[in-house]
Every structure is written in structure tokens, then in C-alpha cells.
Design brief:
single chain; 192 residues; globular
Length: 192
């Protein structure tokens, strides 16, 4: 199926674990070029950490699979992708249970996006890792988390960011609130 399926919508693709240190290096101009050559409409990137907004007619799961396959084919890397439509990302922002905290210091507030559902018992294990000052909430396939003492020192943040931190079959990637808002703004622009 072509990336240009019938009805085009804006989608956000978040890659897990690229351009961190010397591993999984992908230049964003080369990634945009590969996506455009594959038929995705007006691919745009934000920062170097694998944030992509593009036009597609593919559904979420197929889009993730296609982007992962494209990265393997073009760059020789196995990089997981988590996708949301622009409408879904707008819902994530609108339903933030800690909007007052996110507005205080957005770099200490993250959303972890899941490709799949949490396994039973994971939420309880996350609560055991959280410090008394931290707050988190699971809302469907997103986990909102506030780390007032910083992300680098948080056991909860480390678990949310671990490759298999939320279950062997659950692909995740986290974005700070500033990035989430930027991706929402990018996804609300015309893609053609």
C-alpha cells in the first residue's frame, strides 16, 4: 500500500532512541528525504530526537510499521516508532490531568506514549517508584508524569524510559511537554 492512501490526515511519528550519543544516528534532512521519497506528504521534523509530522492515509499501526521498515531499509537501523494522529495528540494535550504542573516547568513534565496497552500491575509498580513529590497518571495509551526534582534523578522517569520498562511487548517513547505542544502545533498546520 502506498503511503498516499485515499484520505490524508496529519500524523505525528515519534522515534525511540535515536541520536542519543553515538548510536542510532540519523540526520533529519536525510530522514525527511527518505519519507518524502516513500510517498509521505510534507514530512517535517522537530529537534534531532526523531519527532516527525507528515501527511498520510495510513492507519496508526501500519504507519508505525512502514516508518520502521523504511528506517531499516534506508539507514540500517531497527528503530521503534510510536504514532498518533494530529487529533489524538490534541486529545492528549486537552486531557492532561496535570496541566497546572506542565505549565510551571514543562521540561520536568513528560508524556510517555505507548504502542499497545499496559500489562496488569505495571501502574502499581510505577507508583512504588515515584517519590512523594512526583505525580503520574495513566490515561489510555499515555502516561503523564511530573518529575519536580528532575528527570535524570527520577526512578520513575528511568522506568518510563527503559526499553522494556512497561512490558516486553509495549513500545514506548517519552516527550517533554514543550515538545508535545510543538508537535501539536506542527500537526495543525496544512501538510500539502
Amino acid at each position: 500500500m502506498s503511503a498516499r492512501a485515499a484520505a490524508t490526515h496529519r500524523a505525528v511519528v515519534m522515534l525511540r532512541g535515536i541520536n542519543l550519543g553515538a548510536t542510532n544516528r540519523i540526520a533529519m534532512p536525510a530522514l525527511r528525504e527518505a519519507l518524502a521519497a516513500a510517498g509521505f506528504e510534507n514530512p517535517r521534523t522537530h529537534a534531532q530526537s526523531g519527532n516527525i509530522v507528515l501527511g498520510t492515509g495510513l492507519e496508526e499501526s501500519e504507519l508505525s510499521d512502514r516508518v520502521e521498515a523504511l528506517i531499516t531499509q534506508c539507514f540500517g537501523l531497527n528503530v521503534p516508532a510510536v504514532t498518533r494522529s494530529g487529533q489524538e495528540l490534541a486529545r492528549v494535550v486537552a486531557e492532561n490531568p496535570f496541566s497546572e504542573l506542565a505549565d510551571q516547568e514543562s521540561k520536568r513534565f513528560q508524556v510517555t506514549f505507548l504502542r499497545g496497552q499496559l500489562e496488569p500491575g505495571v501502574e502499581r509498580r510505577l507508583a512504588e517508584l515515584a517519590t512523594p513529590a512526583e505525580r503520574f497518571a495513566v490515561r489510555g495509551r499515555e502516561i503523564y508524569a511530573w518529575h519536580p526534582d528532575g528527570i535524570a534523578r527520577s526512578k520513575l522517569a528511568l522506568k518510563l524510559g527503559a526499553k522494556a520498562g512497561l512490558g516486553e511487548d509495549v513500545v514506548t517513547t517519552s516527550r517533554n511537554w514543550t515538545t508535545v505542544l510543538t508537535l501539536l502545533e506542527m500537526s495543525s498546520r496544512d501538510v500539502s
